[in-house]
Amino acid sequence: MDFRIKRFSIVFLAILLNLAVLPCGLVLADEPFSNVDSVDNKHLNWYNLDPDTDTVQGASVDRTYNEILLSRAPLKKVVVAVIDGGVDVDHSDLEGMIWTNTDEIPDNGMDDDQNGYIDDIHGWNFLGNPAGENIHFENYEYVRIYRKYDSVYGHVKSINDIPDAEKDNYRYYLDSKKKYQTEVIKYETERMYIESFEKAFDRAALIVKTYLGKDTLVSGDYDALHTQIDSVKKSADFLSYVYSNGLTPEAIKEYKQYNDDRLNKKLNPDINYREILSDDPADLYDTNYGNNDVKGPASEHGTFVSGIIAAKRNNGKGINGIAENVEIMVLRAVPDGDEYDKDIALAIRYAVDNGANIINMSFGKSFSPYKKFVDEAMQHAMRNNVLVIHSAGNDANNIDETTQYPSKTFLDGTVASNYITVGATTHKPDDLFVADFSNYGHENVDLFAPGVDIISLYPDDKYNSGSGTSFSGPVVSGVAAMIWTYYPELQASEIKDIILKSASRLERLKVYYPTDQGKKKKKVRFSRLSKTGGIVNAYNAMQLAEEAVSSQ
């Protein structure tokens, strides 16, 4: 899942240049900040607020603590496994909130607890090798499939030339090849328009600087420039409009890097990043890889996720996470690119076998060649009373029609009873309430949660702002941990039912469908976009949990 802060559109760049272009999203990141003193209060901790008492459509966490839990002591320490790209376990706002394997002696090079992992103090890194080398980037799954089969089927003219036993593989190859080629064209087109925009921007800036006799420009130079020279006036108006929409040269430079990473790294079939692990991704029992570096080379996303769940509450600094009596188990299995089914399956099994109660999964992909591995791991979690929370994804798709993996439906058609899928909403219940990037689905998305303009943790004791279903999922994980902390007798399936039944429903609200930018937007009842038609509500959930336990 991409770490998303701002969303622009290449369509917007094209309009500025009076060009036409295929629609696609542009994601940029702000600079992280050292403290939250200057953060707009309407964004800080808004996911904890209550729609009734605060008039903000948060998850009603603060109200729960203030009105229901004020004089109550927690009864259980809840362990939440965060399967992600890594977590900065030394962040001061996570102090005391990181799971520690007390059966393992740190840094002695031995597997003291005989669980198959050496020195796994805070979890495990499935994207590294014993020598300490780590994977940062990865191909998308469809690129890996295309690479695997192109030498076998690339010359084939018709499916009729393929033996019956291989036809499914051939179709899979064709689907992945089509996706690969489509994405390459998309990002090559983006690059072309970014370069065109840069030239237009540089030309306009040069015209204004020459007219003013300046080497550099400040906002007042082009915002209030009065001249009868047409080229200068148009250039100044262009710069003013561009800057007012946040498209600075720095922002474009960042997106050029974003674009380059996709074209030359994630979409590059000539690079096999997995080679440093020396394992077979098709063999679930080939497990002699990994290391205990749970931070890894890119822990921004996982640190952000963990902060939402467990950042120390009311400690006079930073943000307030949702759950208090909780520990984060770190499982690094999600690179910058698509995760491997094998790594996810092993990470789920590690979480279950080492005491996790909840697994947060803020990632996803469109192809899953070894879904069987993940299904079996999910079933292992279900048998062992572990709750799984999955973010719905950021493609503005109806995932009832376009499958997003992992999925709660197993290959045999049965459905996991311990699995919740979460979409993203904004703070205000209006027609833009559902995040424009959020996946949705009346059957396959269970409910929504805050996921736009969230402030959370960033590596090296910093903070940042982000948007994505990656961050609505951990809101639900935090609420689930809250409930289980005070009602340890509940089962994972019961926690799921409580969260879904207690969701705040906005029956009459009509919202715009999430959609690719550039497409015409249509409205729909919010209740049609998920199974519950609701938003997670900790206050309602805690009351329902009390009723459920009292009736047992």
Q: What are the SSEs and their pairings?
A:
Elements: E1 6-9, H1 10-16, E2 25-28, H2 61-67, E3 78-84, E4 123-125, H3 141-153, H4 167-212, H5 219-223, H6 230-244, H7 249-266, H8 300-310, E5 326-332, H9 341-353, E6 358-361, H10 371-383, E7 387-391, E8 419-425, E9 447-450, E10 454-458, E11 462-466, H11 469-486, H12 492-501, E12 504-505, E13 510-512, E14 523-525, E15 534-535, H13 538-550
Report how far the terminal alpha carbons are from each other.
40 Å
Strand order of the largest sheet: 4-5-3-6-7-8-9
CATH C-level of the largest domain: Alpha Beta
Number of strands: 15
| Average residue-wise pLDDT | 91
Structure class: alpha/beta
How many domains comprise the coordinates?
Answer: 2
Which architecture name of the largest domain does CATH use?
A: 3-Layer(aba) Sandwich
Low-confidence sequence ranges: 1-9, 15-29
Quote the beta fraction: 5-15%
Q: How many DSSP H or I helices?
A: 13
Q: Helical amount among residues, as a percent range?
A: 25-40%
Which radius of gyration do the C-alpha atoms yield?
24 Å
Can you give a write-up of this model?
The protein contains 13 helices and 15 strands. The chain is α/β, with parallel strands linked by helices. It has two domains: 349 residues, Rossmann fold, CATH 3.40.50.200; 123 residues, no CATH class. Strands 4-5-3-6-7-8-9 form a seven-stranded parallel beta sheet, sandwiched between helices. Strands 1-2 form a two-stranded antiparallel sheet. Strand 6, helix 10 and strand 7 form a beta-alpha-beta unit. Helix 3 crosses helix 4, helix 4 runs antiparallel to helix 7 and helix 12 crosses helix 13. The longest helix has 46 residues. The chain is globular, with a radius of gyration of 24 Å. The two termini are 40 Å apart. The N terminus is likely disordered.
